[in-house]
Amino acid sequence: MSTLIRNGRIITAEQDYTADVLIEKETITAIGSSLQMKADKVIDASGKYVIPGGIDVHTHMDMPFGGTTSSDDFETGTRAAAFGGTTCLIDFAIQTKGQKIREALDIWWKKGEISTIDFSLHMIVTDLPEAHLEDMNEMVREGITSFKLFMAYPGVLMVDDATIYRAMKKTAENGALVCMHAENGSVIDMFVQKAIAEGKKAPIYHALTRPTTAEGEAVNRAIALAQMAGAPVYIVHLSSADALEKVAEARDRGIPAFAETCPQYLLLSIEDMERPDFEGAKYVFTPPLREKWHQEKLWAGIKKNTLQVVSTDHCPFCFKEQKELGRESFAKIPNGGPGVENRLQLLFHHGVNMGRISVNRWVEIVSTAPAKMFGLYPRKGTISIGSDADVVIWDPNTEHTISASTHHMRVDYSMFEGFKVKGNAETILSRGEIIADKGTWFGKAGRGKFIKRDVFAGAWK
What we know:
The chain folds into 2 domains: 2-52 and 383-441, Urease, subunit C, domain 1, CATH 2.30.40; 54-373, Metal-dependent hydrolases (TIM Barrel), CATH 3.20.20.140. Helices cover 29% and strands 23% of the residues. It has helices spanning 74-83, 101-111, 134-141, 161-174, 185-197, 204-208, 212-229, 241-252, 263-267, 293-304, 343-353, 359-373, and strands at residues 2-11, 16-24, 27-32, 41-44, 49-52, 54-56, 64-65, 68-69, 86-94, 118-124, 146-150, 177-181, 233-235, 257-261, 309-310, 391-401, 420-430, 433-437, 440-441. Strands 1, 2, 3, 4, 5, 16, 17, 18 and 19 form a 9-stranded mixed beta sheet that branches. Strands 6-9-10-11-12-13-14-15 form an 8-stranded parallel beta sheet. Helix 4 packs across helix 7 (212-229).
């Protein structure tokens, strides 16, 4: 099967030009002006952008948490991702206390068998005695080249500084990358208990018990541990100016510190958590939403490359039945929100259309930088000969109103309900196969492949 995309405006992280793209089987095989080649299918992309498929490196499909499980599995979640222009994602396998890392990997491999797009996995480490350090090398050999550790959620996911240092020391040797959830969980837990004792149980207190200083302190500590271990570090879902300043300071000193943020931190604020009738529970995720003034600081961080990636932390729980588990106390609200379908739309409209970033930078933060950071480039994350034909034809003029009534995520609300955006994915190809076109789905469960990733290698700054 071959496909010829004609007359599209090709946008990569570095280039912007008009050309034709020939796809044969799963691979891009030719790029040029007025290609004189026959193809089984010809797509006229005049007036449209041709971009590499988005890569979301932070999702939680089918994840047990807070007495329930995230509402999207690998089939529904990846289908929604594809409709939004994302053609590859990296989810998280979770090691529970006392469990071998290999056992956790096998569980999540099984979950991923129904994926509609290509996927990979990070490994969440919660138990790492010296005797099990070799397990990290085994994961790298399996193509799992990143590990996530938590400074939050004591008693469940949180590990101590010695464990973090051990993990970082090992990744300094094997080339993997440690991803840090950076919040001071021990102190936050004290704040939470105090608020509950005082009868402060509404959703807003989820944010008020997790101050920005708790994030900034933990980011600074994570970077210091990485520096002592001689390893790079990647801060996940950075939400505040306090944390951003710590990353900027480290990078100014030449320390290999990297970070991502998410659309919710760029576009929503703590005010959303004050909505009446328990509506604020829809916006309970961690780290929490911040005051509005943090938003422009984060946008500036994207522009300056202090923040390299924008992911979603997609972890949806339905408002009815799931979020309502915490109606009596914010501490029992399942942490997480939906967003995997809307990332490219929101960043294009509020980034490119609003003049905050260039169209090249947009492609970089949603596709190319994630691919480089996590060992997928140049197989994915660019439009080039030899790359996988994960290609999105993007209509920059299509107007769309985001709503739970029309989205494809398996969740009963949208964090961005009523947001009007201009620019949307029209045709989505995954390894050369059209899986969605003008709102019609052609993909199927199980067609997505598990992708073994290369090590970080420290080459990309």
